[in-house]
Amino acid sequence: MSQDTQNAGIGPGPYDAGPVPGSAPPVSGAAGMGRILKRETHSSRAVVSVIAATLVAVVCGYALLETGVRAIGQPPWIVDPLTAAERVVALPAGMPPLLLVVTGVVVAVAGLFFFLNAVLPGRRARHLLADRRAAVVVDDEVIAAALARRARLAANVTQEQVMVIVSRDRVDINVRPTSGVPLRPDTVLEAVRRELAEMGPAPMPDVRIHVATAGVVGA
Which residue among 93, 154, 190, 212 is least crowded, i.e. fewest CB within 10 A of its CB? Predict the structure, then answer.
């Protein structure tokens, strides 16, 4: 669980020297807090951007090198640009089918990887908790542990008989009852919903309970 707080500004006193010239203004207000929360709840695209930029730079640099070598009348280092372009246009002629399939799969997977990273929101497994004085960001695993404890107490079962999975919009409670001991799913569901309402995560997920048909033999 990570917690980001915004320091309250203290008014200038008689000995206040004011802001340091050339320094960046502090991040404050709702917009600044919104940027902080977004950074904490969304994964960074910096690594993917660096990989994409490096690949583009390598390809462009190699094309420029081969073009310069051809311009001064020297043999190509690997393949002549015109020859490479002619081979690409002539595909699939002159290329083994297996190699063509492998190359196509690699290119398709790489393209899909970069496309999904550009389109998908990239949210982390975290929720925001309501607080008047601080911005609280909690991992979904912490929320799942708290809800599992409440479900276990409401169902009167052991820790191994309850498993809770928390996602962005959904909470799945899986309970294995004890053989011979009646279990009321509505009671467990209501207890978990009350616990979730007290936490106040944003966005508020929907709670569902699943009771296994096979019970566990009690000790």
Answer: 93
Residue 166 token pair: 């928390």
Q: Are the beta carbons of 187 and 194 closer than 8 angstroms?
A: no
Q: Are 170 and 210 in contact (CB under 8 A)?
A: no
pLDDT digits (tens, 9 = 90+) for 72-103: 888 888 877 777 777 777 777 777 888 888 88
Parallel, antiparallel or unpaired: strands 206-211 and 135-139: unpaired
| Cα-based angle 41, 140, 189 (whole degrees, multiple of 5) | 135
Q: Largest Cα–Cα distance of the chain, in whole Å?
A: 89
Q: Count other C-beta atoms under 10 Å from residue 174's C-beta.
A: 16
Helix, strand counts (H, E) of the chain:
6, 7
Q: CA 214 → CA 153, 157, 161, 217, distances in Å? A: 20, 14, 11, 10
State the pTM of this model. 0.53
CB count in 10 Å sphere of residue 147: 24
